[in-house]
Automatic annotation (TrEMBL):
GO terms for molecular function: transmembrane transporter activity. It is found in: Cell membrane. Keywords: Cell membrane, Membrane, Transmembrane, Transmembrane helix, Transport. Its main location: membrane. The keyword Transmembrane helix applies. One of its GO terms (cellular component) is plasma membrane. The keyword DNA-binding does not apply. This is MFS transporter. Pfam families: MFS_1, Sugar_tr. It is a multi-pass membrane protein.
Amino acid sequence: MSVPATPQEAAAPPGQPRKAATAAWIGSALEYYDFFIYGSAAALIFPEVFFDESDPATATLLSLATFGVAYAARPVGALVLGHFGDKLGRKKIMVFTLMLMGLSTFLIGCLPTRDQVGTLAPVLLVLCRVLQGISAAGEQASANSMTLEHAPPGRRGFFTSFTLSGTQGGQLLATLVFIPVAAMPEDQLLSWGWRVPFWLSVAVAVVGWVIRRKLDETPAFAQQTAEEGVVKLPLVVLVREHWADVLRVIAGALIASVSTIFTVWALAYATSDAVGMSRTAMLWVGALANLVALAAIPLWATLSDRIGRRPVYLIGAVGSAVTMFLYLWAVSTGSYPLTFLLGILCFGVVYSAANGVWPAFYGEMFTTRVRLSGVAIGTQIGFAAAGFAVTFAARIAGPGGDDWSAVALFTAALCVPPVVAALSARETHRVPTEALGVRPARAATEPEKVTA
């Protein structure tokens, strides 16, 4: 039996939810290809290219700190891009962020090295990294809002998960590109080879622009603009009506620490003298884990459409704390079979539960008029802390960089705030789209139904 469509649903052109999800997937994959090749380079290349080679430990620490710089820039980008996204629409921000990311990443590939210009080299590197962070601040929130507001009843979890499976696709692509690069002879790798993945961002920007410029604005935003006009100061409304939800999203976003520790610190640790695993093998661990995540994310998200966001998210948060400990232990043994198995389990399967459901879970906490601001600001503050988790992990690991158990406990501690945030949040998987973010006293009480 069919349920009458809401005004927002009726306004959606046929096939638009799939088109929005596809655009979010491809755009996020292309944009986060740029973002993640920096992580691989920061762990494997930049300590020797941009920093003082006479002190390898300090060079690695400084290189990993530049990875975190983009996360520090994210909250600033979220304030600006969230504001304009709720005023001008989701589509404009999605196009802008993609172009900015492509440009800043291409410029990294053109930078002079420390041997060529001295200390100016790391300064220019940090500047480009800041631009990457500003871009990433608006990317996921705008793509997430776009897919959520286009999604049909009862399937918001599935459709919004395309944003995160896209980021995993981008990470997979970045890893696959870096595998042959990392296998190059040392002199070619350090002179020009490392630049090639960054130069490819030109193609990223062009393809992403073609895809996203054809996407329609969401019916929810169009209806909001037509009936009430845009909010002049979304941040004021956000703080006044949704401050508790913003705090929940900030706490929840700390779960991204699992990703940064896995992607950057564990890679640097495994290939260090303390363990001595090969760069190529460890890049393949990430590639296979991301390949599994591409399948796991939509499956976990579909489950959340049936049983709720909170239980699936909690599986991911609690499970990540446990499996990260097992993964880092496997790396410390130098065993390739154990490392591959537990890396895929930790990052590909378990972490995907939280990673796949948060786009719907966080986005459903806010109303249409401040959704992009709420998700952008909340996630990017939390992601900023997650980005610097790599730098703290390098410190916690000690002078030799080999105290993996301390890093595992540190990562587990960062999983606690997401658990608390999820337990305190409302369950929203059956709330109608037009009632999302409305206080319980004002919200519709009829559960959202799926068209048969």
